[in-house]
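Residues and backbone
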Amino acid sequence: MSTEWTTMPASEIKPGDRIKLPSGDEFDVARIDSPFLGRDNMAAFIEDTPTRWHSYPMPLANEVEVRQS
């Protein structure tokens, strides 16, 4: 099975997707907090595992790389 990265708007990301950040870091989205900080155009993508908790806020219009199997 091949793995391919595609680009899509952040507004289309859903829990369970694996995303690649501009820094090159990757994580599995466990949940999405949106609106974020009271802004309808922002979301925080959150990874929540026993070994790591990570949050990455971004505008919903941004393009994000998503792994597709």
About this structure: The chain has a mean pLDDT of 92. The chain has no helices and seven strands. The longest strand covers residues 42-48. The two ends are 7 Å apart (CA to CA).
